[in-house]
Amino acid sequence: MKASEAWVLPENLLAVEKRLHDRPSGASPEPFGHAGAYLAYRTGLDGKLIRSHALADDGKGLAYVRSLSETLALMGHRIGSAILDVGCGVGTITDALRRSVPGAEVSGMDLSSDAVLAAQERYPRCRFIRRSADELSLVPDASLDLIHAREFYPFTRTEDPGFHLRFLRAFAPKLRPGGLIILGPGYLAANAVADDLGLKKWWREPEIVGQARAKGIL
Ligand SMILES: C[S@@+](CC[C@H](N)C(=O)[O-])C[C@H]1O[C@@H](n2cnc3c(N)ncnc32)[C@H](O)[C@@H]1O
Left if phi > 0, otherwise alpha if psi is -120 to 50, otherwise beta: which for 33? Predict the structure, then answer.
């Protein structure tokens, strides 16, 4: 992994959140990236910071799941009922999955304690676990139909294949036969949020997304 990508290691993300919790009282959490945004959101200090880090709008969450279902249907798949949403942030998509899939049992998992606390408060009908998504000992083998991750840093913020494999190796045994892993880059939703907020789009869509768009699939 490149040194510039090492911030994405679970131990480094946890260290940032710890520094944030240890900061002098009254200091702004803003410079601490997504962790600061979660803290500011959870404590009511600033609800807007979160918008460039995670979906917090239920309508956008439902729209995202709808477009995901439609894309899967084009490929002959459907979303099964036992779902784990990894890197779930404040749980917006986790709950949108629960509301959109009949009979769904949905859990969310995130490394950030502030994100998980906010998610538990917002969506008591989902279960949330604070843990790194490569530590799935709590999840029985062959128990899931879908492992979903949107804009999940271990895949979107590093090109290190060894790090990707570390997560895929943890995910694979947890799937039932025919189960799916969906790694959502979130470009479409991210573009929509950027348009809404007038933010600069600094990410690049993978070529396959451009091709799908050109064919009218997306
Ligand atoms: C950009 S946010 C996306 C949140 C949510 N999926 C969404 O789309 O709104 C990325 C999330 O991944 C979480 N994350 C990063 N590394 C993780 C890991 N190893 N295990 C679990 N969560 C992780 C972060 O805490 C953060 O909440």
Answer: left
61 CA closest ligand 1 atom index: 9
**Quick one: tokens of 132?**
């790194």
Q: Report pLDDT digits (tens) over 170-206.
A: 999 999 999 999 987 655 555 555 666 666 665 566 5
Tokens of 134: 């490569």
Structure tokens at 173: 């045994």
Say what the pTM is: 0.87
Alpha helix positions (H), 32-112: 33-42, 58-74, 92-100
179 touches ligand 1 (CB under 6 Å):
no
Hey, what domains does the chain have and what are their CATH numbers? 3-52 (no CATH), 58-188 (3.40.50.150)
Pocket test for ligand 1, best of 92, 109, 110, 188 (most atoms within 8 A of CB): 110
Ligand 1 close to Cβ of residue 133 (< 6 A): yes
Q: Is the CB of 155 under 6 A from ligand 1?
A: no
Ligand 1 centroid from CA 196, angstroms: 22
CA–CA dist 116, 130 (Å, integer): 6
- Containing 21, the helix (H) or strand (E) segment is helix 10-22
185 lines ligand 1 (CB under 6 A): no
User: Which structure tokens are listed for 162?
Assistant: 């060894």
